From TrEMBL:
<dbReference type="Pfam" id="PF06983">
    <property type="entry name" value="3-dmu-9_3-mt"/>
</dbReference>
<dbReference type="InterPro" id="IPR028973">
    <property type="entry name" value="PhnB-like"/>
</dbReference>
<feature type="domain" description="PhnB-like">
    <location>
        <begin position="125"/>
        <end position="246"/>
    </location>
</feature>
<feature type="domain" description="PhnB-like">
    <location>
        <begin position="5"/>
        <end position="115"/>
    </location>
</feature>
<dbReference type="InterPro" id="IPR029068">
    <property type="entry name" value="Glyas_Bleomycin-R_OHBP_Dase"/>
</dbReference>
<protein>
    <recommendedName>
        <fullName>PhnB-like domain-containing protein</fullName>
    </recommendedName>
</protein>
Length: 286
């Protein structure tokens, strides 16, 4: 099964497969695609995701949640019941000024979900990652949308509404937006108030690149103007959002079925920041 160009990756405390199986039980047309010791890939109602078995180092938080359009009251009630079990409800399932039925919660794996009852005429995709810009980043959502849609192919803003006077945030800040980059849709919103969370490695966005030239391009564009190189193909953009820039060739090299080759490639990758395909290939052949 071919993976998309861009997809979300969730960091789990070595229970990614357990989480993926739980999520697959909640969504129709869902499947575990591949299971590895370090990661699991799966689809929820056709939406491709990765779970990383990374240990306790990082945890997801509400800065990046998954917005789900539910097609009936029965569906939203059932998903709320199962996802909130042993989790934490941040906004209870109820009617709100913008929707007939909605909830914001964190499940038992620490992953945050926004459940919304789909309104008549709403044709948005089932699951969409939602980025919440809070604290010092409140007011930066529009800038982030502008950056992402300029860096990636087929970047476009699909909708954007702003806070008005007396709506609880600075007038002009982004109340809600939906954008698309190379077929990957995301929501971006500014969040008022003080919060005890921010963007981190708990949920990252993985970009699968064709070659070194494309790897270099995304690396340079997303680390420019205040971004940060991290390690092993991971970076933080100027807004603190974590991205993985991963050449397809790397995935081919570690999927050869040869454990010794896989170890050599991983060992070569570990000291790298940006991934260098030629050096990874050299390690595989040694």
């Amino acid at each position: 099964m071919k993976s998309p160009k861009i997809y979300p990756a969730i960091w789990f405390n070595n229970n990614g497969t357990e989480a993926a199986k739980f999520y697959c039980s909640l969504f129709e047309n869902s499947i575990i695609i591949n299971e590895f010791q370090t990661a699991v890939t799966f689809e929820l109602d056709g939406y491709y995701m990765m779970g990383i078995n990374g240990g306790p180092m990082f945890k997801p938080n509400p800065s990046i949640s998954f917005y789900v359009e539910c097609d009936s009251v029965e569906e939203i009630d059932e998903k709320f019941k199962k996802l909130s079990e042993d989790g934490m409800v941040m906004m209870p399932l109820d009617a709100y000024p913008w929707t007939a039925r909605y909830a914001f919660l964190e499940d038992r794996f620490g992953v945050s979900w926004q459940l919304n009852l789909r309104a008549e005429g709403n044709t948005n995709q089932k699951i969409t990652p939602s980025l919440l810009f809070v604290n010092q980043k409140n007011g930066k959502a529009a800038d982030a949308v502008k950056l992402y849609t300029s860096v990636f192919n087929k970047g476009r803003n699909l909708e954007m509404s702003h806070y008005g006077s007396g709506q609880g945030n600075t007038e002009g800040h982004v109340l809600f937006s939906r954008s698309e980059i190379d077929g990957f849709q995301f929501i971006a919103m500014d969040g008022p108030g003080e919060h005890q969370f921010d963007f981190n490695e708990g949920v990252s966005i993985l970009v699968s690149t064709e070659d070194q030239k494309e790897t270099d391009y995304f690396w340079e564009k997303l680390t420019a103007n205040g971004g940060e190189e991290v390690q092993c193909g991971w970076l933080k953009d100027p807004f603190g959002v974590t991205w993985q820039i991963v050449p397809k060739r790397f995935m081919e090299l570690i999927s050869s079925g040869n454990p010794e080759q896989t170890k050599r490639v991983f060992d070569a990758m570990m000291p790298m920041k940006k991934l260098i395909i030629a050096d990874l290939e050299k390690a595989a052949e040694s």
